[in-house]
Amino acid sequence: MLIEYIHQFIKKYLPMLNRSQETIKGYRVDLCSFNDWIADNYNCIPKLEMIDYKMIEEYLYYLKTKRNYADASRKRNLHSISSFMKYLKRDGLVTENPAEKVAPFKVVKKVRQPLSESEVNELFRNASGLTRMLITMLYYSGARISAACNLKMDDIDFEEKTVHLFGKGQKHRTVPLHPNLEKELNHYLNNTRIDTNSDYLLATKKTGRLSPPYARKLISDLRKKLGWQKNITCHTFRHSFGTNLLKKDVNLYTIQKLLGHNSLRTTEVYLHMRGEELGKEVNKLR
């Protein structure tokens, strides 16, 4: 049965590659959803030999038309299926990867709108407790939400003025402890952090640690409290960290290192903001 191979891929192969729990969870959701769709659509127990590129294309079309998945989400599902099929091909369970024959489709990247410094300050003024500590950490360290939620108390070095982040792809990086972040940390640790034995910095009573979904809810609740229409996510703070550094004339290479990007090309996305600003300046000519 197909589901048995999926379980082997999820429980043995991905952990062997040191994939993060968040990454493994993503693969599990995508592949189990594909398995369930085959069962429902074909009214059968899904089997490996049933899968061909036409079935995968049919599934991707279903995600678009029936589930209203964005192109980026469909692309992620295709990647999950393709990685699974590569694993099966490597073990000699299939002779080819049918996902490689799927007709390519373009993904239009949304331009993220960063927060201005005044917007960041307004968020700080209206946040308190765990929410305030969360957004302060995200903005002044440039951390991804997974790294922020994984932060432990001893990852903050007040003597060396550094924050040790465990990020995407099991990679570690150390970023400077900004004075504003240090001030907020001291207030949080001495006044507002819940009384718990948890080693995690962003702790909750129920589980001992803040989860990414709950973090997203805290930020969503803060946005609603302010009555803002602007879409703000956990990643908005990381993006704003990079964009506002660029506005301060920090060079792109330094921003790359602070954000932990492998490639400078990834960091170059922040240049679009500078281009927009230059356009506005030129338009001032009369």
From TrEMBL:
It is found in: Cytoplasm. PANTHER family: PHAGE INTEGRASE-RELATED, TYROSINE RECOMBINASE XERC. This is Recombinase. PROSITE patterns: CB, TYR_RECOMBINASE. Keywords: Cell cycle, Cell division, Chromosome partition, Cytoplasm, DNA integration, DNA recombination, DNA-binding. Residues 110-283 form the Tyr recombinase domain. Residues 1-89 form the Core-binding (CB) domain. GO terms for biological process: cell division; chromosome segregation; DNA integration; DNA recombination. InterPro entries: CB, DNA_brk_join_enz, Integrase-like_cat_sf, Integrase_catalytic, Integrase_recombinase_N, Integrase_SAM-like_N, Tyrosine_recombinase_XerCD. One of its GO terms (cellular component) is cytoplasm. GO terms for molecular function: DNA binding. It comes from Lentibacillus cibarius.
